[in-house]
């Protein structure tokens, strides 16, 4: 059942610009660093203390949490928009499919799309490193961590954004909240590590990163569960 | 199995204490076209949304195809096709893609897409993005989506809303062929009686969330049986002549109005009038139109 729902959802996002967003965001982040390293290569090499790979990864990482918040917000909103736009909910939910399946399918589509973004980011970082001709061996594990650990830490935000986007027809509220979170996340680093907004960066950078990684996944699933209960009960107009 | 395809029992939906639908008992028999009538805001759409499990009833139960909607929702919905108000579609996709998105969930063979497009005559336009369709075409696509799962019951909410006369005609013909050619029971709602009376066998009329009439269309027509208007030169004295013959009626200006007469009585009344020197200009049968009855039943006349 979930497979059928997923294939229908992937069909519906065709030609909506979602795929474009998924690829352009990570490419943009990498391009930014390509510019950074390209314009002042000597300076960056001098600062890197011989580990140019880590320097690339850390420079890209600075922007990853914010990009994830924005990505979660926009992908959720665009995905929900497909159904909201012409009130397709009444048609979709009158089909022989449980609301739980509909909701989980939307969530999995978001996760899948963002995971592709993350993968492109890792590959982009790899490509940048290779283009700069770094001679030290490729740190595969670090590259993949760069792509996926912050993503797992940001799952609570994705769950919340998807829930809000699916619930409110007017997307101004979820999008505003999402962008506000993205901007705030730049300044909340000093605040308590308990703040979920800090988890994407902690899940990559903290010594005990595994705590934040799991916290992200657990809280994400928790929010998803609450959202599901509500989505199952609400009236569709 | 009950003989009813849809049977609701005391169906009620209230929003903040106000009843949008109260104590509704719908009974729809297999293989018929049921016209669900009522003015705007009477609770038709709310009822239909409850039948489809889109909103939860505050009270009451819904039985569809012999099963309880609450406990068997997915199984029931598999056998029901629906179109609720204006059509839902994904504008950036073509008709085929729109149907494919639904087909993937219904899990019916791909060939059904061509079949339903054929039924609603959209085969030629099926490769175009739906956002460029006319309203009538979108509505037909909506019906195609509803038919995709080969339903036993079709629920159509105001399917002709906003269409031009030829679009209305097309949709009406489409609906009429459903029971005949596909054995599908149809529930069609509308706020226009004239539209429903041409296809429905049974009508339910709802007003302020309550069912005020539920019977066959021919019984509704019987209520419409009217009288005879006779335009004469002297209505008042003609009325006296009629009364002498034991016929009651009313006289208004030049018109003598009598009710409940058979052909013979009409003939003898006319003869009597002529014999007494009245000039008769016209003898007209005056049926109350169904529209009049509809207005009477829903009581709009008073509130206007």
Question: How would you describe what is shown here?
Answer:
- Chain A has 237 residues and is an all-alpha fold.
- Chain A has one domain.
- In chain A, 76% of the residues lie in helices and 0% in strands.
- The model of chain A has no long low-confidence stretch (mean pLDDT 91).
- In chain B, helix 3 packs across helix 4 and helix 4 packs across helix 5.
- Chain B has 304 residues and is an alpha/beta fold.
- In chain B, a hairpin with a 2-residue loop joins strand 10 and strand 11.
- Chain B is 38% helix and 28% strand.
- Chain B folds into two domains: 219 residues, Rossmann fold (3-Layer(aba) Sandwich); 61 residues, 2-Layer Sandwich (Alpha-Beta Plaits), CATH 3.30.70.
- Chain B is elongated, with a radius of gyration of 25 Å.
- In chain B, the strands form three sheets. In chain B, strands 7-8-9-4-10-11 form a six-stranded mixed beta sheet, with helices on both faces. In chain B, strands 1, 2, 3, 5 and 6 form a five-stranded antiparallel beta sheet that branches.
- The chains are: A mainly alpha (237), B alpha/beta (304).
- At the A-B interface, helix 1 and helix 6 of A face helix 2 and helix 3 of B.
What characteristic shape of chain B results from the CA principal axes? elongated
Strand content of chain A: under 5%
Order of helices and strands of chain A: HHHHHHHHHHHH
**Rounded to an integer, what's the Rg of chain A over CA atoms?**
19 Å
State the gist of this model.
The complex is a heterodimer of chains A (237) and B (304). By secondary structure, chain A is mainly α.
